[in-house]
Design goal:
Elements lengths: L4 E3 L2 E3 L5 E6 L2 H6 L2 E6 L6 E6 L5 E3 L7 E6 L4 E6 L8 E8 L3 E3 L3 E5 L2
Parallel strand pairs: 2-11
Antiparallel strand pairs: 1-3, 3-8, 4-5, 4-9, 5-6, 7-8, 9-10, 9-11
């Protein structure tokens, strides 16, 4: 069973920052790439970023330069630092583990509003 526990969502004004965290089991964290997707109301789920076991990141087109994904080996967690947030970044953010299929967490709400 793959359990992914997200934390760190909330509400910030435009230009603000948030850091999301996703904790996984040691087995999942050590053997699989992980990352983040998001889904805004009325839109399809969108790729944000992934990070390989070795730490190599990949970002969706809209996020490189503003978002930074990283691995915290001491906590078996993947973090997403989000800076210069925009209103259009408002969405539910889902942690994902890339096994034979993608496993998603329950999601955490990020709201960017003035």
């Amino acid at each position: 069973q793959v359990q992914l526990v997200e934390s760190g969502g909330g509400s910030v004004p435009p230009g603000g920052s948030l850091k999301l965290s996703c904790a996984a089991s040691k087995h999942i964290f050590s053997h699989y790439a992980m990352g983040w997707y998001r889904q805004a109301p009325g839109k399809q789920r969108e790729f944000v970023a992934t990070i390989a076991i070795g730490g190599e990141p990949q970002y969706g087109d809209s996020f490189e330069g503003r978002f930074t994904i990283s691995r915290d080996n001491s906590k078996n967690a993947v973090n997403l630092q989000m800076d210069s947030l925009k209103v259009e970044d408002t969405a539910v953010y889902y942690c994902v583990a890339l096994l034979d299929i993608n496993y998603y967490g329950q999601g955490t709400q990020v709201t960017v509003s003035s």
